[in-house]
Structure formats: structure tokens, C-alpha cells
Write a structure and sequence with these properties.
The complex is a heterodimer. Chain A has helices spanning about 5-25, 30, 40-50, 55-70, 75-90, 90-95, 100-125, 135-160. Chain A is mainly α. In chain A, helix 3 packs parallel to helix 5 (about 75-90), helix 3 packs across helix 8 and helix 5 (about 75-90) runs antiparallel to helix 7 (about 100-125). Chain A is globular, with a radius of gyration of 15 Å. Chain B is of the alpha+beta class. Chain B folds into 2 domains: about 35-55 and about 105-323, no CATH class; about 60-100. The longest helix of chain B is centred in the N-terminal third of the chain and has 38 residues, at about 60-95. Classes of the chains: A mainly alpha, B alpha+beta. Chains A and B meet through helix 1, helix 4, helix 5 and helix 7 of A and helix 1, helix 2 and strand 1 of B. Chain A: This is Rod shape-determining protein MreD. Chain A: Keywords: Cell inner membrane, Cell membrane, Cell shape, Membrane, Transmembrane, Transmembrane helix. Chain A: Its main location: membrane.
Chain lengths: ~160, ~325
Amino acid sequence: MMMPRFAQRSIILITVILSLILAVMPMSIAVAAWRPEWPLLVTLYWIIALPHRVNIGYAAVVGLAVDILLGSTLGFHAAAYAITAYPAARYYQRIRNFSLSQQALLVALLVLIARVIVYLFEHYLNNAPLMWVYLWPALSSAIFWPWIFLVLRKLRRRFQVQ
Amino acid sequence: MRTRLTLALLLAFLLIFADHQLEIMQPVRGALNSVVSPVQYLAVMPEQGLDNFINQVQSRRRLVRENQQLKEDVLSLQGQMQRYQFLVRENERLRGLLASESREERMRMVAEVIAVDSDPFSHQVVVNKGTRNGVYIGQPVIDAEGVIGQVVDVGLTTARVILVSDQSHAIPLRAEASGIRVIAQGVGDTNSIELMHVPHSTELSEGDLLMTSGLGGVFPEGYPVARISNILRDESLPFAQVQATPVANLDRIRMLLLLWDSNSELQPIRTENEPPSADESGNEGANESGNESVDKSANESMEESADSEPGTAEPETTQGEGV
């Protein structure tokens, strides 16, 4: 059964919107510090899985949505997501052959890079003090990556998103 | 691939420049906030659903007990109110004698927090009131304990409130006891704000309550903000290091009060088509911000909207408490 093209594309959009909801969902402070970078994880998955559908531009738009939702200066997350999307979009074939744990390591590194970029912007433009807490989600993102990957792959196959 | 990255980065940097350096982005931000507000409403839905569920299954006995408790609270508050009214009148009379301006009345509206920033660099919350309710940029926001912050962005149905603990926020204060004027800046920690440029010889002491001084023109005078927690007098530093703890629990705010100056042209707008229970639903529980969902000053001519929300729109005036 082939689904209409717009339905396939809407699967991508729906997962991205869900990740944005998870990114702003109220949580207790202790847990919120470990909140994985959901939008980046989902965007990275789609870039690796469907590089002709989701690319650096898409990542930048998702980053912009994160900027609006988090109230940071517009463009901080957009730039960070675009930069981290680049290696994923460039080497997607190689990354697909990685094992899940290798992918998780790479994701941790990419999330770390994204966070450091946002932090540098905040530091030089808005005088943010260094907070190590801000880098913790790199770890939790890596822990959640295998689940994100498997769930999204199941979705992709179930709805034959191409 | 590389051109795409360059293009995306170029756009991002342009945006950063426009948003950071130029003032032109304010209306754009407002519009964008309106666009993403469904995501925020969706994000808060599970929590609200859970709250509703808990309210539903609460046992009758507990409700009766809570009702009893609330009645007692109302009684004691009414008792205090009488005294307060008397003091207000006396204050007005004395101010009249001194020929100084009397305190202006303020209007307030309850708003509910629908999103909290997960980003530790910005202490902001999003509330469920926007331009449709007359919310404006720079509007002071308080809760039952004290000052929370001010509005920085307004969308159609949402507004973004920056907390006093945000590192980019500063607020002019006055010590309640000594009357010393200080400026407190957020440091990015919800439990602490820092007083700037305090000389070593200051008379401030630990435990002093700091109130808004009304000097910045944003916050009305006389609302409690923070209590001094620690003073470090290190002579090798140019100023004394003074830390204060905000009196409001900034890390667990649920209900807020938006304040309006009653003699300015900016006024609260009570929307007719807003579900009347939207305000009360969260209020039924034991939240501390009180039950006055829609307060208004007695001299306002908004009787129609008052009728549509029976029981919640008691004409009531609030005043900035005097020094």
C-alpha cells in the first residue's frame, strides 16, 4: 500500500512537532536538566534515514522553532542545528553502517557540539556564565538515541516514508 | 551540501544580528510566538489532564475539608481586609495632608504558566494570556508571594515573562527597613539574585526585605521581591557582594497575576468567547495565588464581562502597599 506523498511527509513533520512538545514540556528541575535534545535527535534521524527529504535547511528551521519556543535569541539554535546537521548529511551512508552504540556515541558528540555552540553565542552575546549542567543532555541524548532510532525506523517502515 | 550549510548559517547569523542588535524583531517575535503557541498548549496538556483527573477523583471528605479550610481562610482574610481598608483610607488621608500624590489603583488578571524554559540561560515562562487579553510588553507580573518578573514578548494568546532571576534582568529595589536603594540583577539561579554596586559601608544586613522602589517605571512601588541572604564584605573587591533570595518560589510558579496601571490607556481585555472556566479550573486546587480569577477595580465599566463570569469578578481594588 502506497500512502499519498503528503501523508508520508506529514509523518516527518508530526515527529518533529512531537519532539518540540517534549522539548518544552514542563518538568521538575532535577529531571529537566537531563532532558535530551529531542528536536535535534529526531532531525538527525531523518537526515540519516532520508537525506534527500530532510537536510541542513530543515535542521535550521527546526532550530529556529526551538529558538522561538525557548525564547533564546533567534538564530542561536538554528545555527547550531545547521552545523551539527552537516556531518550527518555528509556522511549519512557511513553512519547508517554504524552499530547503535557507535551511533549513540556520535550523537552524544553532535549534541555536545550543538550545546557548546549555543553556549558560546550566549556567552559572547548575552554574557551567560559557564554552566556544566547545560552539557549533561549530551549524555542523556546518547542514552535515548537507540530508542529514538528504533521507534522512528519502525514508523518510517510502517508508513513507508520515502 | 556545503552551499546549503553556508546559506543556512548566513541566514542564522542574519537573524541573530537582527534579533540581538536591532529592535525591529519585536513584532516578528510576537507573530512567531502566536504560531508556536499550539505546541506550548499541547505540551502542558498531559499535566493539566492529570490535575483534572486528580480533582475528579478527590474524595468527598477531602473536598469538604478543603471547603472548610477555604471558608476559614476567607474569613480571616476578610478580617484582615477590614483593617486594610481602614489603613488605605488613613494612608490616603495622610498623603492628602502631605499634599503628595495618592497611590494609584491597579488591576490584575490571573494567568497560568503553560511553559517553562528548559534552557538554563534564560529564565522565562510562558503564560496563557496575550494581546487578546490586553497584555503588553514591560508589564509587571507578581504572584501571591512577591514579584516574579515582567513581560518581554506578547503573542496573541500567550506572553513570555522574564523572571527577576534571569541574568539579563535587573530591578530597582529599596530595603524595607533602611530605605536604601539598590539594583538587583539576576544571576541565572532561581534561588538567588545579586545586588550591584553596594558599598562596603552599607547598612544593609542579612534578612532585610527588599521591595520594589518604583523608580524604573516598570514595577509599581512596594511589592516584596527578595530577602538578603548573604553579605560578603571582602575589602579587596570594589563592592560588597550581596546575595538575596527571591521571596517568590521562582522554580515552581503555576499561577501569576498580571498588573495593569488603572490610569494608563493600556487596559485588560476580558474576552467574551474565552471559556469562562479557563481561569478557574486551575484555581480550584490549593494554589496560593488566591481565587480572584478576574479582579477589577470598582471604577471600571466592564459590568457585562463581570456578569459572564459569576463569582469570580467581584469588584475589588488593589493598591500598591505603601512604604
